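Troubleshooting log. The previous run stalled partway through. Resubmitting the same two chains, unchanged.
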Amino acid sequence: MVAIQVDGLSKTFGETTAVDDLSFRVEDGELFGLLGPNGAGKSTLINMLVTLLRPSSGTATVNGHDIIEETAAVRNSLGIVFQEPALDEELTGEENLTFHAQLYGQHKADRDERIDEVFELVGLEAERDDPVGSYSGGMKRRLEIGRGLLHEPSVLFLDEPTVGLDARTRRDTWEYIQRMNDEAGVSIVLTSHYIEEAEQLCDRVAIVDDGEIAAIDTPAALKDSLGGDVVILEVDGSLSSFCSRLDACPWVMEYTTSPTQVRITVEHGETRIADLVRLADETGVAIASVDIHKPNLETVFLSLTGATIAERESNSSGDANDSALEGIHPSTTADRHASTTPEDDE
Amino acid sequence: MNLIDPRSIYALWRRDVTRFVRTPSRIIGSISMPLLFLVFLGFGFSDAAIPGLPADVDYLQYLVPGMVGFTMLFGSSFAGLSILSDQDVGFLKEILVAPVSRTSIVLGRIAGGSTTALVQAVLILVLSVPLGFRFDSLLLLPLAAVFLVLIAVTFVGFGVALASQFSDSEGFGLIIQFVIFPLFFLSGALYPVESLPDPIRILAFMNPLTYGVDGLRAVLVGSAAYPLFLDFGALVVSSVLMVAIGTYLFERVEAV
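Second attempt completed without errors. Output:
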């Protein structure tokens, strides 16, 4: 069973292409991440998948239902937590959930039971009768995630679920998301511009830049594609015999040297440090320090797009969080569509 | 998605009523302006000769149905426009992403907005009694309720239609000054529209509130400018039209 199937989906606003001919699929039960800077088109993509925006071209299915032809079935199949809070702060937590359940057509008997379950799941039983306005940012997020699951959707969309949360609350929220995925068995699609979030949480990650997907794979495979860890040795002494020993090692993928430093690329660097230290010792090289650089999704993003996520974000002007135009990314789109955009600023 | 989904309409109604009841300051705020108008205009002009006023009706009697209409106009339009404040706080997306037809959403808003506007209007009516207002006939009160409901439906629909043309609540002040207040002044709430110059009087005749206020005056005070069935017919037409226009325009609102 496929949770989401996207085929050639595009969305343009005027002359700007926010989402450019995307195709991918999300398997049932998967925790799938869309990683990319603000303005890469992630929210635009989500808004199309949840039927709030009409695609300019292409199509997609959610839980087997077409997002254009079968909007009612699609809406029944999904839950969403938007980037900006979407709670009625004057109502209590319970009233917010009741409102939601009624809109999704749940009968009173099922509803009461389900609402109890959700409050337990997100750990807000004690606050259920308090106005949502008195909740902390983290509590609101949990309530929204719980609400997204209230009508037992098969896919839960989380658009930047931890933006604006402090570090501790962010970790707690990750834990909740992981638990929802494990316990409720719901497929989850989340967007993020936090490397760590995508890396920690997601089964598979799509790296999104400028409305296109640069790569899709498991975080581990994406990192492996960069070709291993880099072990950096600060050294003193003659390196010639050390280097000839390195040449003879089958597990050394490549290395570079400078008078005081050797950078060695190996797979699973942590398992090779002892060997490297022994080699250095045997060849009379003194080691001042050992450092190991493991590739993360940031270096993956860098090698795929030629810029870091932070650099991409500082490039995009205006309010990158503006939901309607989330996909617009002035400088890079100007590069890509130079023929249609007169003010090519680079 | 059924076009008309009673459970969702109920949920939307329930939300409006809960919010209204929970905020006494909002209730007091909503009736203080019409009440001040009633007190100061009612007493201030009590002995003035107002052109076109029926000889046997004193000004307070004339004014009360007008201020009830004023309360309905503001209460209902604001309820329709509250779609914009839902948009501001993001809650509109929660409503729009649900498997509920836009028609049901508009009907739910109309149900909620009409109820809260009606409560405000009834409060004004009750508070006008200690000021010296006398009902012409208590038997006709159910008929007054019919007129109140029709005014409410018309102007909540109107508010929804207006809200659909804006993307946030920043235009609110402009709407009040250039749309809502003119509707009020051109409704015969304060003085008979017959004394207005011709071109302006035509605008008054196109204003549904003119017929609402006249109908209320007929059943509450027993004095009216037009036949009751004309007032009634005009309001039925305007409420059907406004609901249709409001729904049509709201269908086209982009959610994000």
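Takeaways: The CA atoms of residues 164 and 255 of chain B lie 11 Å apart. Chain B touches chain A at residues 1, 5, 7-8, 10-11, 14-15, 18-19, 22-23, 89-91, 93-100, 254-256 (CB under 8 Å).
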